[in-house]
Amino acid sequence: MNWQNAMSFAASLSLGGKTGWRLPSRQELITLYSSPCKSQMSVVSFNYWSSTTWSERESYAWLVNFSNGDVSARGYKSYSYYVRAIRAAQ
After folding, report:
1. Distance between CA 9 and CA 45 in Å, rounded?
2. Per the domain annotation, does 81 fall within a domain?
3. How far apart are CA 73 and CA 88, in angstroms?
C-alpha cells in the first residue's frame, strides 16, 4: 500500500477493540525492528513504511527493511510497501 493509504489505514484501524493506531516514526520502527518482541510478530522480510517524510524530498518517506534492518529514505510515497501500525500502551 502507498504511504498516504498506509497513514490512513493505521489511523482508522480498530484491532482487538483498540483504536488510536498510527504509523510509527522512523526511530520507532528502527526500535521495533531491534526489539526481542519482533520474533513474536508476524512480519514479512521486506520494507515497512514509517510516518517520517524525508526532509530533502517531500515525495519520499523513510523505510525500514525487516529482513536486515536497513534504513532508507528511498520510499517514494506512491510505491507500495508494508505497514506495521503501533499505538500507545494504556
Report:
1. 21
2. no
3. 25
Q: Is residue 23 in some structural domain?
A: yes
What's the grid cell of residue 22? Answer: 498510527
| Residue 90, in any domain of the structure | no
- Residue 26 CA to residue 48 CA, distance in Å, equals 10
Q: Which three cell numbers stand for residue 26?
A: 522512523
Give tens-digit pLDDT for 44-72: 889 999 999 999 999 999 999 999 999 99
Q: How many domains does the chain have?
A: 1
Give domain status of residue 31, yes or no: yes
Contact, 73 vs 60, CB < 8 A?
A: yes
Tell me, what amino acid is at 89? A
pTM: 0.89
Are the C-beta atoms of residues 71 and 62 closer than 8 Å to each other? yes
For residue 55, give its domain range.
3-36+44-76
Q: What is the dihedral of CA 66, 10, 29, 57, to 10 degrees?
A: 100
